[in-house]
Specification:
Layout (H helix, E strand, L loop, with lengths): L1 E6 L3 H12 L4 E5 L10 E4 L2 E4 L6 E3 L2 H8 L12 E4 L2 E4 L4 H8 L4 H15 L7 H9 L1 H16 L29 E3 L5 H8 L4 E4 L7 H5 L2 E6 L3 H4 L9 E11 L9 E4 L8 E4 L21 E10 L8 E2 L3 H14 L5 E3 L1 H4 L6 H13 L2
Parallel strand pairs: 1-2, 1-10, 2-9, 6-12, 10-16
Antiparallel strand pairs: 3-4, 5-8, 6-7, 11-14, 11-15, 12-13, 13-14
Bound molecules: flavin-adenine dinucleotide and uridine-5'-diphosphate (UDP).
Length: 373
């Protein structure tokens, strides 16, 4: 009846469904949540587009991906420039001349580089082997202590010494007065929200929400020749080799009777004591229609904020972040090998591939997959 059964209506599933439909294939998309769009889902609350599963800023250096998403949405000119709050001291992120000026009172790149170089030399680290060493090697001890250690240990629930170095390499360190969190040439938020963008990708394609494939496998697997699975790969195989580790999150969303709560989309709380990692004020993402002082279209006297609490993952929780350390990657390889035994099933997306994909990487990998089919 169908050429492809697609499990998961997140970005990976939706992009694959779109591409294969355009190749003349019949697709059925199953989604266990009661809505499409996966973790990029956004919804209107008090007239503000709220990112339900954490703040999502689209950014890419991949022209194909940029061209693709622009078919389904117009992007605004939002630039993510979060602020860090360390025990009441405020610093610009990512680490740049504004941060260095606030930390050390330096004004020039040369002065800042000198301080970081000295701190690196004092540490005696030459070949960083874990996140702590990598962070001190890249940015020096002050930045590590105030802006990285507390945040990272809350986020991942482990000491920085026990975390892989690559996690921190995601963050830019630059010697210019530039608070743009991302280095990519394209960045923005889809006007009208991510959900509407994914809705457009899925236009004309059959989608069933509220269906967990694992519970209805017998009914659905016979309906299609091939299956694209974007849920967790270990769950698909009933954890036969053991559980992969994930990190989960708890979001606490609140409507406040104030126009502008924190003046910026994101504030990271980088100390160890504050139990949440960040507060998001959603209206600031809707930049580009500056009719008032916060860049939001209308004054409503209200705002919506979300506090993000990292929590350890257990079965049944949302698996937000794969923990790509050595043990988990070895375990993932076993599942991957197992998956290759069945020609009918293809794994994709953040959970299917157990990869720390940003949106653009999740899309790029599915575009490539679809091209080859
Ligand atoms: P998902 O969005 O997780 O979609 C998978 C879908 O499959 C889900 O809807 C799930 O319900 C469904 N599913 C699973 N199992 C089953 C089943 N058995 N039956 C039916 N359906 C099932 N990326 C950026 O580029 N910029 C950002 O700013 C950014 N911020 C992020 C913030 C947070 C807090 C998190 C967690 C991620 C962030 N990302 C960001 C990454 C981004 O969310 C992912 O790249 C993207 O969502 C991946 O899409 P996906 O389709 O692979 O996964
Ligand atoms: N990080 C940090 N301090 C911050 C922000 C990030 O130490 O204020 C670290 C943290 O370990 C995080 C990593 O940098 O996991 C990558 O940050 P990013 O913002 O890319 O995280 P994500 O997009 O995965 O939420």
């Amino acid at each position: 009846m169908y050429d492809y059964l697609i499990v998961g209506a997140g970005l990976a599933g939706a992009v694959f469904a779109r591409c294969m439909t355009e190749k003349g294939k019949r697709c059925l998309v199953l989604e266990k949540r009661d809505h499409i769009a996966g973790n990029v889902y956004s919804e209107q609350i008090e007239g503000i587009e709220v990112h339900r599963y954490g703040p999502h800023v689209f950014h890419t250096d991949n022209e194909k991906v940029w061209e693709f998403v622009n078919r389904f949405a117009v992007f605004n000119h939002f630039v993510y420039s979060p602020v860090a709050n360390y025990k009441g001291e405020l610093y610009n992120l990512p680490f740049n001349m504004n941060t260095f000026h606030a930390l050390w009172g330096v004004n020039t790149p040369e002065e800042a580089e000198k301080i970081i170089r000295r701190q690196r030399e004092d540490s005696g680290i030459h070949n960083p082997e874990n996140l702590e060493e990598q962070a001190i090697f890249l940015a020096g001890r002050d930045i590590y202590e105030k802006l990285i250690k507390g945040y990272t240990e809350k986020q991942w629930g482990k000491p920085c010494k026990k975390l892989p170095a690559f996690i921190i390499r995601r963050l830019p360190l630059r010697f210019t007065y530039d608070n743009n969190y991302f280095d990519h040439p394209h960045q923005g938020i889809p006007v009208g929200g991510y959900t509407r963008m994914v809705e457009k990708m899925l236009e004309g394609i059959e989608v069933k929400t509220g269906v967990d494939y694992r519970k209805s496998r017998k009914e659905y697997e016979k309906l299609a020749e091939k299956i694209l699975y974007t849920g967790p790969i270990d769950e698909y195989f009933d954890y036969c080799f053991g559980k992969l580790e994930y990190r989960s999150l708890r979001f606490e969303t609140e409507i406040l009777e104030t126009e502008n709560y924190q003046g910026v989309a994101g504030i990271n709380y980088t100390d160890a004591e504050t139990p949440y990692t960040r507060i998001i004020e959603h209206k600031h993402f809707e930049f580009g229609t500056r009719k008032n002082d916060v860049g939001h279209a209308e004054r409503t006297g209200k705002t919506v904020i979300t506090r993000e609490y990292p929590v350890s993952w257990k079965r049944g929780d949302e698996p937000y972040y794969p923990v790509n350390d050595k043990r988990n990657m070895e375990l993932y390889e076993k599942y991957k090998k197992e998956s290759l035994k069945d020609q009918r099933i293809i794994f994709a997306g953040r959970l299917g591939k157990y990869q720390y994909y940003d949106m653009d990487k999740a899309i790029a990998s599915v575009l490539e997959l679809a091209e080859g089919m």
